[in-house]
Amino acid sequence: MTGPGARARYNGRMLRFSLFSSFVLLGLLKAAEPVQLFNGRDLSGWKMVGPGRFEVEDGALKTVGGMGLLFFEGKAFGNATVRVVFKTTGEHSNSGVFIRLPERPNDPWYGVHNGYEVQIDAAGDEWHCTGALYSLAKAEKGRQKPAGEWNTMEIVLKGQQTTVRLNGHVINRFHGSQAVPERKQWYEPVRGPRPDVGYIGLQNHDAKSTVYFREISVR
């Protein structure tokens, strides 16, 4: 049956469908926006454990002092992309991004032995260079920019799968079920499963290493 009434009802249904689709699209776009965990001014939302510390300098976090772990207290993350923009000050500048921490850490080594450390170290071998899961999963070398230039690292968490991109290049893919090398040193991670969802943090490695972080976000 056709006519003005039928056309009006059809137009009404299409309008409702269009509005519904718009709301869904806006919701998806909002969900896709990254959440900034560092406000560029202070350490609000973050907590430090260990003797080292982080300072804010020119809108970026700066590693200072000895060994330490700065973690985000607000929530644990899974099925997300962690985006970190960092720069080093020398070839041997050493730091890392901790992921999959099952609990809020209470000592600076907790992240090494209970989560994964996504390494930052241009001088390390493929098991210990930037993008490697420290001594567990090797990364492709040569994608890090020279000291003083900003790098963008994206760590994609999807269930037990971890994918690391550095400056737009996939340099590491690792699944929690994969075989890993035998543990040889006391400071290497204790082997074992890590959770799908966990806390994240940044490593302050040593007093001689200075690394800057100007963005830490999660999408």
Explain this structure to me?
With 219 residues, the chain is α+β, with helices and mostly antiparallel strands. The chain has two domains: 1-33; 35-218, Jelly Rolls, CATH 2.60.120.560. Helix content is 16%, strand content 35%. It is built from two helices and 13 strands, in the order H-E-E-E-E-E-E-E-H-E-E-E-E-E-E. Strands 1, 3, 4, 6, 9, 10, 11 and 13 form an eight-stranded antiparallel beta sheet that branches. Strands 2-5-12-7-8 form a five-stranded antiparallel beta sheet.
Report the CATH topology name of the largest domain: Jelly Rolls
Q: From N to C, what is the helix and strand string?
A: HEEEEEEEHEEEEEE
Helix content: 10-25%
Number of domains: 2
Query: Total number of β-strand segments?
Result: 13
Indicate the mean pLDDT. 90
Structural class: alpha+beta
Beta fraction of the residues?
Answer: 35-45%
Low-confidence stretches: 17-29
- The radius of gyration is 22 Å
Described by strand count, sense and barrel closure, the largest sheet is:
8 strands, antiparallel
Oligomer: single chain
Shape: globular
- C-alpha end-to-end distance: 49 Å
Can you identify the CATH class of the largest domain?
A: Mainly Beta
Give the name of the CATH architecture of the largest domain.
Sandwich
Task: Give the number of helices.
Answer: 2
Name of the CATH homologous superfamily of the largest domain = Exo-inulinase, domain 1
Topology record:
Layout: H1 4-32, E1 35-36, E2 46-49, E3 53-57, E4 60-64, E5 68-72, E6 80-88, E7 95-101, H2 110-114, E8 116-120, E9 151-158, E10 161-166, E11 169-175, E12 199-204, E13 211-218
Antiparallel strand pairs: 1-13, 2-5, 3-4, 4-13, 5-12, 6-9, 6-13, 7-8, 7-12, 9-10, 10-11
